[in-house]
Specification:
Length: 451
């Protein structure tokens, strides 16, 4: 005999219908979300500004001077494959990596905000606008989609993003839940993990307020009001009225919050990651997937360029472009191998997929003003862990690293590949503000990237 729906179940089903899913659609979505998964978590290392393929994973040492650039190349553990000479540690572990050398935009997005949105969602914006404005009409972040269909355990934030909100003129869209609502927003932390006082601002339970009393919704809202000074420092507390059960779980489960206490890591481990904002952010990412987070966004930098910014190295007359690269490349060569080794040592690499990618690459020819301009026609991505093929180079570029010569992988395909790795059908639909069905990805998983 069929059991009747409990009040709690009915509320859950009713809540689902408010977001455009009927009960049959909800069941179908659950079936699609329960496909066999290769990984439990993804660490998405977003290289804001656009790393140059010539200086990283696709150097062209035999090209003319104005193409090959400022540095040479170094051999890797993959026969016949070379990396940029400033990445010797990565070259030494190339047999663990999957290198994608044929990334290409399906449309020519040459502005940072447009291409950034594309790289963070897998969806191209309608226009290539340097000041692309955020709106609920634009697509949600990868992690918000993951959080909607693969919610984490009680007390764990499924989607965490740090340590910046990236922008170029205006805030770059694609960093939050958009039309999926605040219940799927990331836990956004903008404090510097390299700061010795770094902690997750947290709501605390006053004496006498037990977990049982949290069943009273009013008690939680009163608690939030009483600690309003903390709300400005952490988006964990914002939107709690929309995600009441998540709020209760966070308040009553200290385990996840402990992951943010980097002082519990041995000094030598922290030193291996590098005492930089990016290095300590990657260490935090490892601690978060260990604590159960499903999708972690780590932004290399807040700004596209500048002395301590991201990978935008157009160069201008008088600017020291090699000096900029001598800041960017050593950080990458120190931190990424350390993260991989740390995940492997802790038995987390098989269940975690690490993805390293920016919004585009750099022009083959060095600009007359020095440096390289934006180039979406050919750039690189790196995958490691989670069953990704080891020591594998996917695709190839021409002799100038200007165009792919073997195949093409788009941001849509990379998005589909990540969703597929987590067990989500890329054709799974979400509903926008107009209740229109939209697939979570417009691409196809690149099956060749996995063993």
């Amino acid at each position: 005999m069929n059991q009747p729906l409990s009040r709690r179940s009915a509320i859950r089903v009713g809540g689902a219908s408010l977001f455009g899913l009927s009960f049959p659609q909800l069941l179908a979505a659950t079936e699609k979300a329960n496909r066999k998964a290769r990984v439990k978590s993804i660490i998405f290392l977003h290289q804001w500004g656009g790393p140059g393929q010539h200086e990283t994973f696709d150097p062209k040492p035999d090209a003319p001077d104005n193409v090959r650039g400022w540095f040479g190349a170094t051999k890797t553990k993959i026969p016949g494959v070379i990396f940029g000479e400033k990445l010797p540690k990565l070259a030494a572990i190339a047999d663990k990596l999957t290198i994608v050398r044929n990334m290409q935009h399906s449309v020519s997005m040459k502005n940072h905000n447009s291409a950034g949105y594309y790289s963070l969602t897998g969806i191209p914006p309608a226009v290539d606008d340097q000041r692309l404005r955020d709106s609920l009409e634009l697509f949600p972040a990868f992690g918000s989609i993951v959080n909607k269909f693969l919610p984490s355990e009680k007390g764990v934030a499924g989607f965490v993003s740090f340590p910046h909100v990236i922008s170029d003129g205006s805030v770059t869209p694609g960093q939050h839940a958009s039309f999926l609502g605040k219940t799927n927003a990331p836990l956004l932390v903008t404090e510097d993990p390299n700061n010795e006082r770094f902690r997750l601002p947290e709501l605390t339970l006053p004496e006498g307020l037990t977990p049982d009393r949290l069943e009273d919704r009013r008690s939680v809202l009163d608690l939030i009001d009483s600690q309003s000074d903390l709300l400005e420092k952490s988006l964990l507390a914002k939107g709690l009225d929309e995600s009441y059960q998540k709020a209760v779980a966070m308040l009553t489960s200290p385990a996840f919050k402990t992951a943010f206490d980097l002082t519990k890591e041995p000094k030598d481990v922290r030193d291996k990651y590098g005492r930089t904002t990016y290095g300590q952010s990657c260490l935090l990412a490892r601690r978060l997937v260990e604590a159960g987070a499903k999708f972690v966004n780590v932004y290399f930098a807040k700004s596209i360029g500048g002395p301590s910014g991201g990978w935008d190295y157009h160069g201008f007359r008088g600017e020291d472009v090699p000096g900029r690269l001598n800041f960017l490349l050593p950080i990458t060569d120190l931190t990424l191998p350390t993260l991989i080794a740390d995940l492997e040592e802790r038995g987390l690499l098989d269940s975690t997929l690490v993805v390293w990618v920016g919004e585009f690459g750099r022009t083959p020819k060095i600009s007359s003003n020095g440096g390289r301009d934006h180039w979406p026609a050919c750039y690189n991505a790196v995958l490691v862990g989670g069953g990704a093929r080891k020591g594998y180079v996917h695709g190839a570029s021409d002799k100038l690293a200007a165009q792919p010569t073997v195949g093409r992988v788009t941001p849509e395909d990379l998005a589909a590949t990540m969703f597929d790795a987590l067990g989500l059908d890329p054709d799974l639909e979400i509903r926008d503000t107009q209740n229109r069905p939209l697939p979570i990805s417009r691409g196809k998983p690149v099956k060749e990237l996995f063993a």
